[in-house]
Amino acid sequence: MKVVFLGATKGMGRALARLMAARGDELFLLGRDPVELERCAQDLDVRGAGTPVRFATCDLLRADGFGAALDEAAQGLGRFDAVVVTAGIYALQEDLEADRELRRRLLTVDFNNTIEFCEEARTRLLAMGGGILCVFGSVAGDRARKPVILYGAAKAGLAFYLEGLDSKYHSRGLRTILVKPGFVRTGMTAGLREPPIVSEPEAAARAVLKAIDRDRAVVYAPPVWRAVMLAVRSLPRWLMRRVEF
Amino acid sequence: MLDAVPRRMSGWGCHPVVQGYEIAGEDLEAITRTVVLTRGLGRSYGDAGLPPPGSQPVAVSTRADRLIAFDPATGILRAEAGLSLAALNRAFLRRGWFPPSSPGTQFVTLGGLVAADVHGKSHHSEGTFGEHVTALKMRVGDGRVLEVREESEPELFRATLGGMGLTGHILEVEFRMRRIPSPWIWAESERFEDLDGLIAGLAEASVSWPYTVAWMDLLGTGGARGRGILERGRWAEPSEAPARNPSVKHSLSVPITCPDWLLSRRLVTPLNAVRYWLQGPKVKRGIVHPESFFYPLDALGNWNRLYGSRGFTQYQGVLPWRSGACAYERVLGVVDCLEAVPLLCVIKDFSREGKGTLSFPKPGLSIVFDMPISVGHTQAVVDALNDVVAGEGGRVYLAKDALTRAEHFRAMEPRLEHWLTVRRKWDRRGAIRSAMSVRLFGDPP
């Protein structure tokens, strides 16, 4: 499989890219920092990626560069079968409420521009006869909760968007995969209080890879979160007003 | 990303336990800017990976785990210091490469391998891990980030091998891997009735085998004590090895901290006897999975929980060859007389002294055993053992240690003054410290 990967330098993206490279997928990395990209490409090469991993810069804050970055990837890979988007940012609800600039940045990166990127990816995938669009949402998008109101809203919006793409373009060969990671120990969650269920990036990445192989439209990573969020979604509103999680 | 998370921290022995702060992240160079110590997978047993009392955060290196370069022509590999041996083996065993020296667990980081200058079953032939290190990237105490090679900074380089992470934060490690003929091990095991036989068997096996170690039953009574099983091995030739690659072993894990009474003399004495008798009088030989051979205890995740909430300590000392059998008897004498409960005991012959200024191995016999912590008592046992080891010109392994007193360590380490001088030269303000450096080297808390 030929994969364009936005966000492979860190966390779950790094773990997923390694699993893909290890099984012989051909990767093209997109990311913000060329030095980091080069080091991650090297890492995948040394781990035994079949073909040299190439990369190009692409910043989720700058939507005007998305098309060019995807074209560069298409050129590098010949064509591509999948686009994976793990990039995103997180901030505490209190900080987002207090800081207008931060709020704007989070909504731009996690919602507006992720969708802009997906639109560019979608048109290219459809032009090539279809393919996989795999985007990382969050369990935070499953139920509005006090600590993740804005972040959760952005992720819920992504879920809506991907479901819509699936309805409209599935018949033309576009397969969307929405990944909903639970609490995974990465740089993004460092410093947050850990819930009772915590997983490592590798475990989440394995669940994602399975979903890619088995044609699942929505995947909880790791899968135990499906049950957890089923319970959380069923909680009544008066209770959600009282609890703090 | 740079938020420090409060955590109760301990080494693998779960004793001592301290309250500290951790900073984790992919960018090790960034997170080591403000920390007092860098910690890896936390597999040192005592307080080597713990911060000094106070509230300074430690960096956790495990997310800095990228491979940087590998040259199949020379076997030289470079990676970030948080890469685990397990991840390295997963990537390289099937390609025919293995590190020349590997400890008894693969859940250690490259930084940890360097900081403890680890040894393994191959010590008699390959020496310690540090002998194969060609370069280090470090952040030293004054904040500078340096490429350190033996040729460029010999003193700092050597002080860092076995320096328990106290000479600088290890950011990247470059070392030489060994080519192996197949990813499988040809192993033999043979039992010996007494300690003399076991030691002689170990010495004899080490002449022709690259990997040797012996398990000893220290709990048996009378003639049974000191009996044991010698294990020797080598990489299998392609003609005798299975054609497939060894699969990654799925391990069971101890789910909860067990009650303190579980691992006791009463339970382990018969288990030791069973293990001895299962071996049988004949030599067993055959092809084994490399993980079963090198990392038998990794098969049981969180096995430290078996010791209960009290925790345990692992005592490891080396006795020079000239000490001879009477010194081993004296060690066993301490164990008897103070009624210590050494549950798992392993012996290994060491050849040369490591390159590192404070490297543990020296020519002689290494004895290591686990003891559950019992307040007050275990300290007395360690003190008495250290009396014997220091008196014989031996020393203890800092990666295992939690209870050695500063006076004892000084008595064992004529090299300590030099090491402290080098350390001070690179860290005048004493920015890098650990609970261990406060306990043993007189650092301010």
Please characterize this protein's 3D structure.
The complex is a heterodimer of chains A (245) and B (445). Chain A has helices at 11-22, 34-46, 66-77, 93-98, 100-127, 149-169, 201-214, 224-233, 237-242, and strands spanning 2-6, 26-31, 54-57, 82-85, 131-136, 174-181, 218-221. With 245 residues, chain A is α/β, with parallel strands linked by helices. Chain A has one domain: Rossmann fold, CATH 3.40.50.720. A seven-stranded parallel sheet of chain A has the order 3-2-1-4-5-6-7, sandwiched between helices. In chain A, helix 1 (11-22) links the parallel strand 1 (2-6) and strand 2 (26-31). Chain A is globular. The model of chain A has no long low-confidence stretch (mean pLDDT 95). Chain B is 26% helix and 25% strand. Chain B is of the alpha+beta class and 445 residues long. In chain B, the strands form five sheets. An eight-stranded antiparallel sheet of chain B has the order 16-12-14-13-19-20-18-21. Chain B folds into two domains: 67-180, Uridine Diphospho-n-acetylenolpyruvylglucosamine Reductase, domain 3 (2-Layer Sandwich); 185-409, Alpha-Beta Plaits (2-Layer Sandwich), CATH 3.30.70.2520. The two termini of chain B are 27 Å apart. The A-B interface holds A 9-11, 14, 22, 39-40, 42-43, 46-48, 185-188, 190-191 and B 1, 3-5, 23-26, 63, 66-70, 77, 91, 95.
Task: Provide tags for this entry.
heterodimer; A: 245 residues; alpha/beta; Rossmann fold; 50% helix; globular; B: 445 residues; alpha+beta; Uridine Diphospho-n-acetylenolpyruvylglucosamine Reductase, domain 3; Alpha-Beta Plaits; 2 domains; eight-stranded antiparallel sheet; five-stranded antiparallel sheet; 13 helices
Shape of chain B: globular
CATH architecture of chain A: 3-Layer(aba) Sandwich
Amount of helix of chain B: 25-40%
Number of domains of chain B: 2
Q: How many helices of chain B in DSSP terms?
A: 13
| CATH class bucket of chain A | Alpha Beta
Question: Distance between termini of chain A?
Answer: 39 Å
Query: What's the CATH H-level superfamily name of chain A?
Result: NAD(P)-binding Rossmann-like Domain
The percentage of residues in β strands of chain B lies in 15-25%
Which parts of chain A are unreliable, with pLDDT below 50 for 5 consecutive residues or more?
A: none
Determine the structural class of chain B based on helices, strands and strand pairing: alpha+beta
Largest interface (CB < 8 Å):
A-B, 18 and 17 residues
Shape category of chain A = globular
Beta strand count of chain A: 7
Q: How large is the radius of gyration of chain A?
A: 17 Å
Strand order of the largest sheet of chain B: 16-12-14-13-19-20-18-21
Overall pLDDT score of chain A: 95
CATH topology of the largest domain in chain B: Alpha-Beta Plaits
Order of helices and strands of chain A: EHEHEHEHHEHEHEHH
- Termini separation of chain B comes to 27 Å
The first-level CATH class of the largest domain in chain B is given as Alpha Beta
